[in-house]
């Protein structure tokens, strides 16, 4: 039977019926894997935002004179937009999988994901915020 409230214990089913933990070793390895995936999510989000920032830097500022100067056509712009969209899709998939893992309602899984997200943010996204102007959605899964 699936738990519908938070519980502590080493027996958990994470994402798939085949990913079951029944010993301390399998449980701790699963928590380490979830921690790493959550930190990787933050790394990929940082890469996506930096790539989007690089792709939009070549555009002229819309404040200067948008009606007087025609926007230069660049072949790189559609490629950059497509790459940003692919990274967004990968990040969304990872974010939703982490959310589904948390929905196992195992408190250890919840803590591993939250601490992994926080550690990934600290390692990959907390420094050099002055050049990170592109902020779309503060939600962890977007």
From TrEMBL:
<keyword id="KW-0187">Copper transport</keyword>
<dbReference type="Pfam" id="PF04145">
    <property type="entry name" value="Ctr"/>
</dbReference>
<comment type="similarity">
    <text>Belongs to the copper transporter (Ctr) (TC 1.A.56) family. SLC31A subfamily.</text>
</comment>
<keyword id="KW-0472">Membrane</keyword>
<keyword id="KW-0812">Transmembrane</keyword>
<keyword id="KW-0813">Transport</keyword>
<dbReference type="InterPro" id="IPR007274">
    <property type="entry name" value="Cop_transporter"/>
</dbReference>
<dbReference type="GO" id="GO:0005886">
    <property type="term" value="C:plasma membrane"/>
</dbReference>
<feature type="transmembrane region" description="Helical">
    <location>
        <begin position="105"/>
        <end position="124"/>
    </location>
</feature>
<keyword id="KW-1133">Transmembrane helix</keyword>
<feature type="transmembrane region" description="Helical">
    <location>
        <begin position="24"/>
        <end position="44"/>
    </location>
</feature>
<keyword id="KW-0406">Ion transport</keyword>
<protein>
    <recommendedName>
        <fullName>Copper transport protein</fullName>
    </recommendedName>
</protein>
<keyword id="KW-0186">Copper</keyword>
<dbReference type="GO" id="GO:0005375">
    <property type="term" value="F:copper ion transmembrane transporter activity"/>
</dbReference>
